[in-house]
Amino acid sequence: MNLARVSSNGQITVPVEIRRMLGLKAGDKILFFQNPDGEIVVTNASANAIIKAQATFAGVAQELGLQSDDDVQALVDETRKSGD
Asked: Residue 78 — φ and ψ, nearest 5°?
């Protein structure tokens, strides 16, 4: 168990073990949210965004027939050309 003190400004220092577990680095943002059971959860906002993006795009590569990094790069190049 780790303990942090809240300053008069409402700031806390995240204990080093927790920073390591969450993969936090200087400048990262922390996301606080409440589960339906009332529990408050703390997570790395950047990591959470990546996980949500991955879930959102799951299966899209297969649907588009993308099988390699070269296929993805070709799609990016094509999209950039059509945007001009």
From this structure: -60, -45
